Amino acid sequence: MGTSSRVAAAIVVVLGLVLSLAVVCNGGKTSSFVRKVEKTADMPLDSDVFKVPPGYNAPQQVHITQGDQLGKAVIVSWVTVEEPGSNTVLYWSAYSKKQKSEGKVTTYKFYNYTSGYIHHTTIRNLKFNTKYYYVVGIGHTERQFWFITPPEVGPDVPYTFGLIGDLGQSFDSNKTLTHYELNPQKGQAVLFVGDLSYADKHPNHDNVRWDTWGRFTERSVAYQPWIWTAGNHEIDFAPDIGETKPFKPYTHRYHVPYKASGSTAPFWYSIKRASAYIIVLSSYSAYGKYTPQWTWLEQELPKVNRSETPWLIVLMHSPWYNSYNYHYMEGETMRVMYEPWFVQYKVDVVFAGHVHAYERSERISNVAYNIVNGICIPVKDQSAPVYITIGDGGNLEGLATNMTEPQPAYSAYREASFGHATFDIKNRTHAYYGWHQNQDGYAVTADSMWFFNRYHHPVDDSTSAQ
Ligand SMILES: [Fe+2]
């Protein structure tokens, strides 16, 4: 080693020490609230929230999601049990006459379970910002619902997203959904970060629990779209009982508009909604270089026009930045692949689930490391997203309470409580984010932050005193 390279090595070592001191000494806030640590149970099958609607062949598990890239289409899905019945959705607004749309019906088997008749019908060419009523179950027992289409895509369109992850169907799940519904910061669509029913925690992945979850969540998702992300509990891979096709129940029951964004699989896709561009990624599909997801994302990110949709939001299931001792570093390989792009394209915020707790990061990146240079510590980065883990929907697996200590500097706030959040976009520069925990009143935020848009207002919006 020559003199100059020794000096360089010494500089790297000193720099590393300074960086690591900064990281160790300036942790964010860990809430002092301590919940009792116990697993919660799924609500019993005869619970009110799982009630089957009355009437012959009545549609159940009604749910909607966005059906195109712009928000002018809605996918309506429902299940009938006695017979297939009609695939027709009848819909109208105060300004239009009644129209019909036809869809398709499917069924699947899983071990010793046979599904009901699962209907998916896309309604297209809707007007923006309009309340539509719709009816399913035509010919047998009709049920009527409604939804409101989003405003036309544009840079200063206000819009409020709800955020829920890892919901399941426990008593805590029911509290989370109720808190979301009664939050005065009215969410207009839910960004769901994966792990829906947790049916796979029951013997032989008892798919009856997919049905109960569909009936439980209908009271929200029949009236506003939930944007779906696939989590590990959607994989339903069970070779011991002969079930080797991953995502079988999930893909039969929950459709997403992936083709509209040029995706080749329903696990990664994008939509525009109001002033937001939302990219959904799959932690459980191949994401390495040259894979379909990688190729799609490489082509997708340059398409985001921040003058049209200022807010760039990414959803995934497994978090990249997580200082709990659960699922620690599970997101690391995907972070290594995609984090440089997120910084380059100035993603505003990344929402993930998986860890059953809450955590919000500062704007940091960790892209300098190249195997040989030793620069492997996250640093503050104003081009980087804020990472939020919101896997605290309340499923039967209980809370993640065990955290790494000391709290890393990049972790701005963390707390092991069940809850949900809202992301309230005001205009192209500002959005108000609030996390609500189930033990508080409906209007209380336990953690909040004003987001400054990374493209239009890239001012430091960190909440720590560093
Ligand atoms: Fe998960």
UniProtKB/TrEMBL annotation:
Primary enzyme class: hydrolase
Catalytic activity line of the entry: a phosphate monoester + H2O = an alcohol + phosphate
Gene3D superfamilies: 3.60.21.10, Purple acid phosphatase-like, N-terminal (2.60.40.380)
Domain Calcineurin-like phosphoesterase: 160-358
Purple acid phosphatase C-terminal domain span: 384-443
A GO term, aspect molecular function: acid phosphatase activity
Keyword vocabulary terms for this entry: Glycoprotein, Hydrolase, Iron, Metal-binding, Signal, Zinc
Enzyme Commission no: 3.1.3.2
Keyword Nucleotide-binding among record annotations: no
Reported cofactor(s): Zn(2+); Fe cation
Annotated family: Belongs to the metallophosphoesterase superfamily. Purple acid phosphatase family.
Name under which the protein is recorded: Purple acid phosphatase
